[in-house]
Each structure stands twice: as structure tokens, then as C-alpha cells.
Fold this protein.
Amino acid sequence: MTGSLPAGAWAAASEISIVLLAMNGDDAAYGELVRRRQGAIRNLLRRLTREASLADDLAQQTFVHGWQSIRHLKSPGAFGGWLRKLAVNFWLQHARSSKQEVALDEDLRAEHPAATVSRQLDLDAALAQLPRDARLCIVLAYNEGMTHREISETTSIPLGTVKSHITRGSARLRELLQAYGEAHVR
Amino acid sequence: MSDEIDDRLLALFAEAHENLPGTEFMQSYLARMERVRRLQNMRRIALGLILVVLAAWIMPWVLATTAAVVHVVGEQSRSYGALIISPAGWGVSMLIGFLVLLRTGALRRR
């Protein structure tokens, strides 16, 4: 493992300079990038998968793949989007290979009494009810704050379809959340 | 037209965002990286071994073919042998060498 900066200096270093070091094979720099980005990538995958352990596993696959291919990154500034795209691809790969796509959270509700069901659980359960592509578009728009065009570029879904997924998906999400008793969402 | 975004859903997503502690995740990530590195090293060693075995296997054929080619070239160029080792031959060789250096830019001042 190579380390081009003293341990305390990482916190002050800009992400672009760390990405540049990582692109030149500095493993310590890549480790710092993982430390900085793990929360965002894990949150994104938790919204998509509804399963914390699966989300963490996919996040790790994403970071390992990122480490193997960071040399091919076109520009250091594109690191965040590139990593997010990797994460989305790993999730899509997983979703395609596993057939257990839509199963509402009856089991989860059984585990958590109604009074303690958190908003997060409701949101994840409602998201799980959406078709795969719609869920992806909704999560990228609301969780990641991406524009429709960016979503289209990241997912290779046509722009018009992205717009329609978001419009219909948002409406369906509101319905589902209302059904869960989230009156204030309406 | 601007992107359609529902503020209430946006707030709900923001609320659901967790501050995930990274210690445990980083530990298992580092362990996974170690496994990947070990696997990569084993793959490299295996590839090296395959290349060595392959080289040993084709070596007799390579040596026999090289010897045959050298023999043929030797037969063909016997008449030029005297010319190559003459002072004129040395001169021409040096000229060719100089042209190659010039062409590759090796004589250029840095």
C-alpha cells in the first residue's frame, strides 16, 4: 500500500487531488475516497434495495470495482457521478439476476409493530412497490438530487421515459405513503 | 421546462437519509480488498507458471526453427560477408547508425 500524504492531511485535502492520487495507484488515497463516499453510496443502495446488508454488500462491490478501474476515469471531477453509476449498475445487475423484485413489507411490518414503524421503513417499503426502473428514477431524483437529463445519462433510459417514470412514480409513492398513514405527505 | 419535483417527497427522502457509521463498513471493505488483492496475485502467479510451461514446451521447436533460419540466412549472405567486414562496410554501418539516431531524436539536446 502506498501513502503519499501523512495520515492527518487527508481530511484537509480536496477530493479532486485525492482522486488524482488514486488514479495514479495510491491505495491510501482510494481508501480516503471510500471513507468519504461510503455514506452516500450506502444510502442510495438502501433506498434501492430496502435491505441494509444487501446494500452494504453492493456498496463494497462498487468500491472494489472502482478501485480496479479508477485508472480509466476520464476526469477527476467526474468521480462522484462515475461511482454512483457503478453502484446503480451493480444494483441493476443484482435486480435482474434475482426474481424477488416486488414483495411488500408484510414480513417487515410483522417484525416492527405498527407504532414503531419508522418513516424510513415506510418510504423503503413504498419504493419497493414501484417497478424497478421507476424506483431507480425516483431515488436518483429525490435521494441524489439529479436532474431528469442526468438520470437519463446515468441509466441509459430515454429522457421521456425518465420524466414519465418520475411523474407516475411520484403519484404512486404518494398513494402508497398515504395508505401507510403518512397523512402529512398529501 | 424545469424538472418536476414534489417538495413533500423531497423532504421525506431527506428525513430518511441516515448518517451511517463507517467503521464496520470500512473494516469489511478492507478485508474484501485484501481478498481481491490475494486473488489477483494468485492469478498473476498462475499466469506466470502457465507462460513458463508453455515456453518450455515450445522451446525445442523455436530453437530448431531459429537454427534453420540462421542456416538459410548464412547460406544466402555468404557472398556479402567479406563486404560487411571491410572498412567500407564499417563506414556504411556507422552512417546507417547515425541516421537511425538522428531519426529517433536521440541526438537532440534536452
About this structure: Chain B has a mean pLDDT of 88. Chain B is about 80% helix and 0% strand.
